[in-house]
Design goal:
- The structure is a single chain.
- By secondary structure, this protein is mainly alpha-helical.
- Among the domains are: about 25-50 and about 195-305, no CATH class; about 65-160 and about 190-195, no CATH class.
- It is built from eleven helices and no strands.
- The longest helix has about 50 residues, at about 1-50.
- The two termini are about 75 Å apart.
Length: about 375
C-alpha cells in the first residue's frame, strides 16, 4: 500500500517536470525562430536587391545622383565642361572609344553623341554600374586614393569619416555615426553587396537561414496542438519583420516629405523601397494574418468544445431498482391500526368433531 501511494505522488510531479521542459523548449525555439527568420528575410531582400538588373539600375541611379556630384566637387568625375569635350570627340569619331580617365569602361562615341548632359551621364554611369557589378569598386573606378576610398565605402546610411566637399543636401534619414560603420557592415550591406559575388553570397546565406527557420517551425508545430501550431509560428514571423517594415515606412515618408531637398536620394530610396522592403512588408502582414486566424480558431474551438462534449456524451442507462430486503427481526415494528379501522381478519383452525376417533386408547 505504501509503495502504491508513493507512485501516485511521483506521477504528477514527473508530469509537471516534463511539461515545464516542453514549455522551455518551445519558448527558446520561438526566440531562435524569430532570429532565424530575421536573417532569412534580410538575406532574401539583399538577394532580390543584388540581382543583376536591379543592382545595375540602382548603381546607375546612385552614380548619377550621388557619386558623380561628390566626385565633381572634389576635382574628378563627369563635370559639365568635361562632358562637352566628350561630345566633341563623340561627334568627330563616333565609333572610337572615348577616354574617361576616372572609370574603367569602354564607351564609344555613338553611345552619347547628340545626348544632353543628364542622358549622357546616365549612359556612362550605366556602363560603370555594369563594371562595378562584375568587378566591384576597383573594377569600375580609377580615382585618387581618397576618392577611391570614398567610392568603395560610400553609403547614405553612415556618416563619412573623411572630410570631403559635398554638394549634396543632408540625408533625410537618420545616419549611423562614422565609428559604427563596422556595425553597418555586419548587416551584410557592404560595397560588394551589389555585385555578382555579393548576390551569390546572399542567396547561399538565405538558403541556410530558411532551412534553419523551417526546422525550428517544424519543432514548434510538433510540440503544439490545434490552433497553437499556427499561433506559435505566426508570432516569430511578425516579430522578425515588423520593425524593419516600420523603418521602411518612416524612411519613405521622410524622403518624400520635402522632395526639393531630398531629390538626389529619391531615386535610390524608391528602388530600395520597391525591392528590399516588400519582403518585410509581406512577412509582417503574413504574421498578422496568422495571429488573427489562430486567435479566431482558438476562440471558436473553445466555444464549440462544451457543445461537442454534450452531444457526444454516452447515454445514461437506468438500472432496475434493487428489491428491498425485509428488516431484521429485532428491527420489526408492528403496525397499530387506527381507532376507526376494522380489526384485521384472523384465520382460525376449526375444532375436531366429537365422534372423531381418538388414538388415546391405543397407547
Amino acid at each position: 500500500m505504501m509503495t502504491n501511494s508513493n507512485q501516485d505522488q511521483a506521477t504528477p510531479s514527473m508530469d509537471s517536470f516534463a511539461s515545464g521542459i516542453k514549455k522551455t523548449v518551445m519558448n527558446f525555439a520561438g526566440v531562435f525562430l524569430a532570429l532565424a527568420l530575421l536573417g532569412a528575410l534580410w538575406s532574401t531582400a539583399l538577394a532580390r536587391l543584388s540581382e543583376r538588373t536591379t543592382a545595375v539600375t540602382l548603381l546607375t541611379a546612385a552614380g548619377t545622383d550621388l557619386i558623380n556630384p561628390l566626385l565633381t566637387a572634389n576635382g574628378s568625375g563627369l563635370a559639365q565642361g568635361f562632358y562637352q569635350q566628350l561630345q566633341t570627340q563623340a561627334q568627330a569619331h563616333p565609333t572610337q572609344v572615348l577616354a574617361i580617365p576616372f572609370a574603367h569602361v569602354q564607351i564609344k562615341g555613338n553611345m552619347i553623341a547628340g545626348k544632353g548632359f543628364a542622358d549622357g551621364t546616365r549612359v556612362i554611369y550605366a556602363a560603370i554600374a555594369t563594371a562595378y557589378y562584375d568587378g566591384g569598386p576597383r573594377g569600375a573606378f580609377t580615382l585618387p586614393p581618397q576618392l577611391q576610398a570614398l567610392v568603395s565605402n560610400y553609403t547614405p546610411f553612415v556618416q563619412q569619416a573623411q572630410q570631403i566637399n559635398s554638394p549634396l543636401p543632408s540625408v533625410p534619414i537618420p545616419q549611423l555615426p562614422a565609428f559604427a560603420a563596422g556595425l553597418w557592415s555586419a548587416t551584410g550591406i557592404t560595397p560588394t553587396s551589389l555585385t555578382a559575388t555579393g548576390h551569390a553570397e546572399a542567396v547561399s546565406r538565405s538558403y541556410l537561414l530558411w532551412g534553419i527557420s523551417a526546422a525550428l517551425a517544424l519543432l514548434l508545430v510538433l510540440l503544439s496542438t490545434g490552433w497553437n501550431r499556427l499561433w506559435r509560428v505566426a508570432w516569430p514571423l511578425f516579430h522578425s519583420s515588423w520593425h524593419i517594415a516600420l523603418l521602411g515606412v518612416i524612411g519613405t515618408i521622410l524622403v518624400h516629405r520635402d522632395i526639393a531637398h531630398t531629390g538626389p536620394y529619391q531615386g535610390v530610396m524608391d528602388l530600395i523601397g520597391g525591392t528590399f522592403m516588400p519582403v518585410f512588408y509581406g512577412a509582417a502582414l503574413a504574421g498578422v494574418a496568422g495571429i488573427i486566424i489562430a486567435f479566431v480558431g482558438r476562440r471558436f474551438t473553445a466555444q464549440a468544445a462544451p457543445q461537442l462534449a454534450a452531444t457526444t456524451a454516452p447515454a445514461r442507462v437506468l438500472a432496475a431498482p434493487t428489491p428491498a430486503m425485509p428488516p431484521p427481526g429485532n428491527a420489526y415494528t408492528p403496525t397499530i391500526p387506527s381507532a376507526g379501522a376494522p380489526p384485521p381478519a384472523t384465520t382460525e383452525t376449526p375444532a375436531a368433531p366429537l365422534d372423531a376417533p381418538s388414538d388415546y386408547g391405543s397407547r
